[in-house]
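The material for today's practical consists of a large collection of protein records. A record pairs a protein's sequence with a compact description of its fold. Instead of coordinates, the fold is spelled out as a row of discrete tokens. We will come back to this pairing of sequence and fold again and again. Here is such a record, shown just as it appears in the course material.
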Amino acid sequence: MPSRILAPSPRAGALLAATVVAACSVGGSGSMRSVIESPAPVTAPPRFVPLDSAKVIAPADTLVGDGCLSPLADPVTGIQIILIRSESGLGDYLAPSGSYGIKDGQLIRLDCNTGRVLGIVRR
């Protein structure tokens, strides 16, 4: 008896797509769905830099590396921040308690390509 190849039905494809979308949207704390709650703190530097300053390319002020680098440092005070999550060129970083007026449960969102502070988001 010859074997038959069964093609998936359009309904099965739609069900699979809906399952994938639902699974991706259950992000919890790892999700970048947090919106910027407030602008960059006035005490934050215009940008954070890698600890190894050789990773900074001047004059374009672009950070070299794949994805978001961690840790980064405030070039004036030396305060270090640690990457908690990243997506699409954005990174949410944890700063030491009390730094830059950030409250518990808040993170600093940076543009990972430049280290520029975009604002404050919920953890």
Residues 10-24 form the longest helix (15 residues). The chain has one domain: 32-122. Confidence is low (pLDDT under 50) at residues 6-29.
